[in-house]
Structure formats: C-alpha cells, structure tokens
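Support reply, case 0932

Customer input (verbatim):
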Amino acid sequence: MNSKQRVISTLNHQQPDKVPVDYWSVPEVDKILLEKFQLKNKEELLNRLQVDFRYVKPVYTGSDFEEQVDGSLHKRLTDGTLVDIWGVQRKEIKWAKGKYLEVIRSPLAEVESVKEVENYPLPKSKNFDYHSVCDQCDKYHNFAIILTGDRLTTRASVFKLAMYLRGMDRLLMDLILNPKLVEALVSRLLEFHLEHNRYIFETAADRIDIFMIGDDFGSENGLLISPSDFRKFFKSPLQKLVNLAKKFNLKIWQY
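Our regenerated output:
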C-alpha cells in the first residue's frame, strides 16, 4: 500500500498494512529533527518519518499580505506588529527557543450593533489562486491529501475566528448578552468559508481526500461553551460546511 491507499482503507474501516502516521510540530522541533537527521527541509523530514499525510491550501496572490514562518497571512505595520487579512493585530512574543504571534487587538472588540458587523469587510476570494491546490495535490499524489488553511486566518473556522475578531472575553459574554451580534458575526465568517472552500472543491476536489475544519470547542477539561450554546450558534454553520464537503464526496475532519 502507498500512503493514500493506507489512509483511505483506514477511513473506510478496512484493514491497512500498518497504522497511518501524521506529524504536527512547532518550528523549533522541526529544526532539531532536521539537524539530528541531517536533512535539508520539511519534506525530507516527513519522508524520513514515513508520514502518510500532506496538507494543501490555496496560494495567496495579493500584494498586501505575506505568508509568515508559521504559514499565516500577515503584513507588518510601522510599529513592528502584524495584522492579518481579517484585521486582527498580533505581536511577536519571543522566548528562549522561538517566537509566536499573540493577539493584541481584536478589530470588532468595540462594535455595538449588528449593522457594524454586517459592514465589516471580508477577505477577497480573488486574492487566492485556487488552481495552485491542484499543483500541490499532483505533487503529493501518493499521499493522503488534507485540505487546510493556515491556523490563524484561512482554516475553516467560525468559533475560533470569531474569538480573534471580537475578543474571547467579549464573545463569550455575547453568547448570553448579545446573541444577535454573535449570529451576525458567525454568519459573515461562514459566508467567507463557504465561498472560499467551494472554489477549492470545484477546482480540486477530485484530488483531495479530507476536508479539515479547524475549530477548538474544547479544552483539556471539557467544552469552552455549553452544549446548548454550541447547538444554538455553531452547530448549523458547521453542518453547512460539512454538507458542502460531502457534496464533493470528501471525508471531514473536525479537530
């Protein structure tokens, strides 16, 4: 079996030749492993570890934002901070072995009306090269292909992205105090993700195996919100994303 056959057999509840392997890491770990195994790049490392999956996403073609080391789409402001394609502002926080981007400003933190949310500008689909997904898939045709986005800006997400835009504290209070605003915000985010991923599926679904939905609803100790709030605000949007992927016969991974 090659990697694609191994993963598809497993997902179809058939016996593979061995357990499929995936690999997630932070850049610091990649660096250590590349040095340890004397490898040149991440692809060589994935092959060395016999990883069965490869992740693909559309290439951003706009001139105003650039892909950062972590894969996110940001542009650097004059004060050294970064802002992403949604208007969320972040700062690089350094520690002994690396640096990470942490939110310092949520652009919708101070809005008070549904109208303000409805008028907030969304990223433009014209700034993505959807055919680039085909090229990536063809490069990895023997591997299981997962459609993703970068973890901060384009991965299919309504809850986590809403927290970035509104601020986690405000969004959690809004679930009780301002539900109409939450509904409006989630609706706008879903609007982008449905359009964005529909373009991808129409272009490259025959090459993709798994559609990844990257929302974090839980912690180590349980849900971040109540089951009733999940059903009220987020179940339907997630179902619409799942239904879109199923129209193109894709497997769905909610993580």
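We compared this against your earlier run and they match. Two observations from our side: The mean pLDDT is 93. DSSP finds nine helices and 13 strands in the chain. Please reopen the case if you see a mismatch on your end.
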